[in-house]
Amino acid sequence: MTGIVRVQPSLQSIKSLPGNHRFMSSQKFDRLQINDKSRLGSGNMITPSIFENVQVGDGIDEAVDSFRNDLDLVNEDSPYVGNLVSTEGRSSTEDEEVEAIASSLPSSSKSHADNRWGDTSSYASKKKVQSWFQLPHGDWELVKILSSSASESVISLSEGKVLKVKTDSLVQANPEILDGVDDLMQLSYLNEPTVLYNLQYRYNQNMIYTKAGPVLIAINPFKKVHLYGNNYIEAYKRKSIESPHVYAITDIALREMTRDEVNQSIIISGESGAGKTETAKIAMQYLAALGGGSGIEYEILKTNPILEAFGNAKTSRNDNSSRFGKLIEIHFSETGKISGAKIQTFLLEKSRVVQCAEGERSYHIFYQLCAGAPRILKEKLNLRAANEYKYLRQSSCFSIAGVDDTEQFRVVMDALDIVHICKEDQESVFAMLAAVLWLGNTSFSVIDNENHVEVVEDESLTTVAKLLGCSTGQLNLALSTRKMRVGNDNIVQKLTLSQATDTRDALAKSIYACLFDWLVEQINKSLAVGKRRTGRSISILDIYGFESFDRNSFEQFCINYANERLQQHFNRHLFKLEQEEYVQDGIDWARVDFEDNQDCLNLFEKKPLGLLSLLDEESKFPNATDLTFANKLKQHLHSNSCFRGDRGKSFTVNHYAGEVTYDTTGFLEKNRDLMHLDSIQLLSQCSCPLPQVFASNMLTQSEKSVTGPLFKAGGAESQKLSVATKFKGQLFQLMQRLESTTPHFIRCIKPNSLQSPGVYEQGLVLQQLRCCGVLEVVRISRSGFPTRMSHQKFSRRYGFLLLESAASQDPLSVSVAILQQFNVLPEMYQVGYTKLFFRTGQIGVLEDTRNRTLHGVLCVQSCFRGHRARVYSKKLRNSILTLQSYIIGEKVRKEYAILVRRHRAAVSVQKWVKCKRTMNNYKQLRGASIVIQSVIRGWLVRRCSSDVGFLRTGFKGTQPEEVLVKASFLAELQRRVLKSEAALREKEEENDILGQRLQQYERRWFEYELKMKSMEEVWQKQMRSLQSSLSIARKSLAIDGSSRDSDASVNDTQDPGSFDAVPGMMESNGAMRPMSAGVSLIGRLAEEFEQRSQVFGDDAKFLVEVKSGQTEASLNPDRELRRLKQMFEAWKKDYGVRLRETKVILTKLAEDEGGAAVIDRAKKKWWGRRNSTRV
């Protein structure tokens, strides 16, 4: 970075802590003391009298105060004053061995501004083991002190080289335990080398974020680091990670906006290449992740590729440098969701469109369009390669390493679709870009000796006219002539080559600037909040940082002026307003001096003799030149302490970040930024819609007609505001908006000028730290009260944490009671007239306690509400079940009644169908029987009739005896027929009897089956029920047997001589024998059951007595009990099988008994009829 004016680093140590500030607990101090002891050499001894009469738990400050007179220490604020090394025992020979070569090294002198940073006392009293020493090339190195005196010290460098230097040139170093702390406020000794070392220590470990009080320092790693993504977003949302990060700053802004209902702002600053744009995108990603849900957050994120393509370019310092400033105001709904956004841009670098330095590029969109446009679009716009356009080939750089312009163009196309820019408008945008490129290729030819020119009618002219929608003649006149009004006449003046070139370039710059503004306007329409606006918003400011090059022009002049204004806002927020608020609220506060840049701002803004006023004044004169402007500045501002006039066209301004020399070449032209009326009329007459919109906007922004020398010279009839005045107005509006918000600052640091990862240039980093005032911030924040809250708000927010009710007390009493209850040390806060002021970290403890309490309350409420909901749900469920049971029961009863009616109807139908079928069968059988009978009877009658006729015909010739024989034969036949009929009737009766008895046997069989099933079930459940069932069965069988015996005895009393009685008696005796066999079988089963039950019961009882110890036996009762159980299961299975077999036998016996009885009755009936016939 040779172009930056650097201030040579000098010794800037800072006092560590205020006298009433506790930096850390005594336990942590003890650990540090032990650590420092381990770092001392063997020849060094810790002074033993330091901590006499001091308790281990005593504070550091009390220990220092009690022995201040003995030690004669000036820097009593350090928490490490106890770690002093006594060198009284060191021999003088050690000093003689050291070479006195310190005279060859330059010593650092302190300026007046440095005196307030550090100690002016001698370093001899401190005698630190390690310190910082500035090398000749300006870098700081950590050295080891071998010996020390009041004026000189002997140090050892890292490579082993030993030097003798002045003691005042050494700067205190922090103990190793503080290496790499994430907040610079934790450093014991705050000075430039310790800050540089701490940042480098974290940078080497890819920890690119460090806090400096309320400011976040972000060092560009120039590589991808694994610190982003959804996992990190969720972690910072849950507060599970507390390390410094852009996510943490954004989360704080979001929470404060929701809690305090105050708009927030995140101000991101830094020089080109420090990573401001990426940091802004990271902050937007976090807001989109936490406030997303409506889809608008995706559109907001997609604005970044569009703005980067149209507003970023490759410079010598940065491959993706923002050449404009932007403020993104993100609005939130009442529920904390993103409802819309608005983008405001500042000072687009229009000159980059027509001018490009070697090694740099114009805006990305030109190269992306030439490389990634589809073939149809290229043919329509007549696009060529980037190296064929004059505006782009001024530099030989057409690509960026690692960047694919074709892919980036596709990303831009997708982003344009997402922000709802239609295809027609997109084609118009690309047509304007192509027109700008072809305008650069437009050439002029000299037509006379006065160097007047006209446009060469070639492909460039026709293409531009086609893309703009105008004729080539109109374009030729607008570029080569200028209309002037003299009196009442209009005069057309031909332009020279330089004037025509400037007109062409002005038209190209105006078209591109208007196109950029139009795109931003369309994006704002897409992201418009509308009726969803709630007043809550978070603004992210991504603006160019302080710039200083070898040659600084008008752009650097405006950029540095903006940074001066932002620095004052930074100072007002962190220094001025804070200290003024301390004084107004009447707290005990010692004023701290800080650098104020109000003098530099007055140099820019003072009227009528300020830089901007003189620039506008000089721009109004047509004959003014850059040299006259420089001389006017030197004439009027030579007495200003922030201004210095140089030779020629240069002047120097002493900015807050250092001196910058500006070259006034081009200042007046760039400030005027004239767009002649002829060019505006050309755009308004174009057939394409966008040029017409551009012309309308330019006319709207113009001021009233300018009278004076410019008008007389034939200038534009309508002149707009100068660039400097317009930019000043935008800057004041920006400051007003930022003043109404709570700011959060992110300072981006560029670690090296090579844009290489892992390279850390101390000089470059130190200059940027000075520019952003990091040391000042830490110094004042650490000694002040950065957190403040009104009495009412504090009591309202934390009053519920009090153990006793304080409803009747005033807010101040409640606030004091809260602080006393939580044992907040008095030096950690101050009570003002209207507010409470807290040191860093104190309000966080109260917030943690409040969050834990609220979480506990919410847990109790959730449990109670859950219990109440479950009770209500259970009650409601029971009611629903009861209602459902009634409804389902009624429904089932109705369905059952319908089924019963259907069943009865089905049974009735079946009965009538079966009756009809049986009747038909009976009629068929009866008819067939009648037919058979009629046939047989007819045959018999005919046969008998034929015999009778034969006998009658032969009666005369035969004997009477033969006739009698024939008559007896006929009677015998009749008797047999009657007998057959009687036998048939008896058979039918027997059939009916057998059917009835069969039904009885089926009922008895069904009863037997039920009994057997019940016996099996009872057998499984209770063994005794089986015995009772068997005894009942045995008794019933015995009664049946006795009845049969009685029947047998009755049969014995009948006529023994009757032949038919013998078979009946024999059949009865045959039935009795199997029945008695069945009874005996059941008896044996019952006896076996009783015996087995007795045996198993005795064995089980014996095993129980053995197990309980009542009986002694040499056996294992558990094993024997399992064995007995197995035997019982086997017997039970076998017994069940035999029981089923007995059931089958009984069934067969029942069937046999029934058949014999039917036969017996049939025979008795038959013999009874026979005896009656005999009688």
UniProtKB/TrEMBL annotation:
Disordered, as annotated region: 101-120
InterPro entries: IQ_motif_EF-hand-BS, Kinesin_motor_dom_sf, MYO1-3_N_SH3, Myosin_head_motor_dom-like, MYSc_Myo8, P-loop_NTPase, SH3_Myosin
Region (Actin-binding): 731-753
GO CC terms: cytoplasm; membrane; myosin complex
Residue ranges of domain Myosin N-terminal SH3-like in the record: 126-175
Residue span(s) of domain Myosin motor: 179-851
Positions contributing to ATP binding: G270, E271, S272, G273, A274, G275, K276, T277
CDD domains registered for this protein in UniProt: MYSc_Myo8
SMART domains recorded: IQ, MYSc
Keywords associated with the record: Actin-binding, ATP-binding, Calmodulin-binding, Coiled coil, Motor protein, Myosin, Nucleotide-binding, Repeat
GO terms of molecular function: actin filament binding; ATP binding; calmodulin binding; microfilament motor activity
Domain of life: Eukaryota
Coiled coil: 970-1004
Matching PANTHER family: MYOSIN, MYOSIN-1
Protein name in UniProt: Myosin-1
